């Protein structure tokens, strides 16, 4: 993994100066898996690209950055290739929307929750990098 290699090189160089560089690989995929489990339990379809997790997160971030990234007027049509909630494999035709899954149930609240989940996963991994003082 190129990111891990670079982080290790930089850490070796700057670590003796008290500056540490870590590659956090336990953020996006594990948070996505945990989020998918939660929404599947609520009867919503999981997604991989531009579906409920991505769209909800963008809706939440729009509010923070005062930018328009989600076309709210198109949300009712935001359905793409259906995928299996367990295997994440396509189960139906590709409507060529760029969406893998179904984004129609996206909300700012779900986006905030997903964003905070990713932060929690990152913090947990970073805490594991920090040596504990005895």
Secondary structure: elements and pairs:
Layout: H1 2-14, H2 28-41, H3 52-65, H4 108-129
Helix pairs in contact: 2-4, 3-4
The averaged pLDDT comes out at: 94
How would you describe the shape?
elongated
Assembly state (oligomeric): single chain
What distance separates the N and C termini?
33 Å
Q: How does the major sheet shape up?
A: none
Structural class: mainly alpha
Q: Which bin fits the share of residues in helices?
A: 40-55%
- Low-confidence region ranges: none
Number of contiguous helices:
4
Number of strands: 0
Question: How much strand content do the residues show?
Answer: under 5%
How would you describe this protein?
With 134 residues, the chain is mainly alpha-helical. The protein is 47% helix and 0% strand. It contains four helices and no strands. Helix 2 (28-41) packs across helix 4 (108-129) and helix 3 (52-65) crosses helix 4. It is elongated and about 55 Å long. The model has no long low-confidence stretch (mean pLDDT 94).
Features:
0% strand, single chain, 134 residues, 4 helices, mainly alpha
Q: What's the gist of this structure?
A:
The protein has helices spanning 2-14, 28-41, 52-65, 108-129. By secondary structure, the protein is mostly helical.
